[in-house]
Amino acid sequence: MKTIDRELQDYVAILSEEQKETVLNVVKALAPNAGNDSDWEDEEFVAETDRLCGQYHSKTASAATSRSEGRNIAPGIRN
């Protein structure tokens, strides 16, 4: 197995189901254009990649926000 394949496999193993779904959508967007150096010149490809990345980042940001809610602001006081 190539090093990059092993590295990808290691990352996939630690992703949540939602993250795996996002990665799969990105891979599907890349696959039809494999070997095409002008992918980033394709407006539809760039728009879809931006949409998927934004979707991923908004989910991780909302998860980080929800984890921080309810923490103590002072000993003995809960939000």
Commentary on this structure:
The structure is a single chain. With 79 residues, the chain is mainly alpha-helical. It has a domain at 1-28 and 38-53. It is built from three helices and two strands. The chain has helices spanning 3-14, 17-30, 43-68; strands spanning 72-74, 77-78. Helix 2 packs antiparallel against helix 3. The protein starts with a helix and ends with a strand.
Kindly summarize this structure in a few lines:
With 79 residues, the chain is mostly helical.
**From the alpha-carbon coordinates, what is the Rg to the nearest angstrom?**
18 Å
What's the helical proportion of residues? 55-70%
- Count of helical stretches: 3
Order of helices and strands: HHHEE
Given the C-alpha coordinates, what overall shape results? flat
What's the end-to-end separation, in Å?
A: 50 Å
Structural classification:
mainly alpha
- Describe the main β-sheet briefly: 2 strands, antiparallel
Topology:
Layout: H1 3-14, H2 17-30, H3 43-68, E1 72-74, E2 77-78
Antiparallel strand pairs: 1-2
Summary tags:
3 helices; 79 residues; mainly alpha; two-stranded antiparallel sheet; flat; single chain
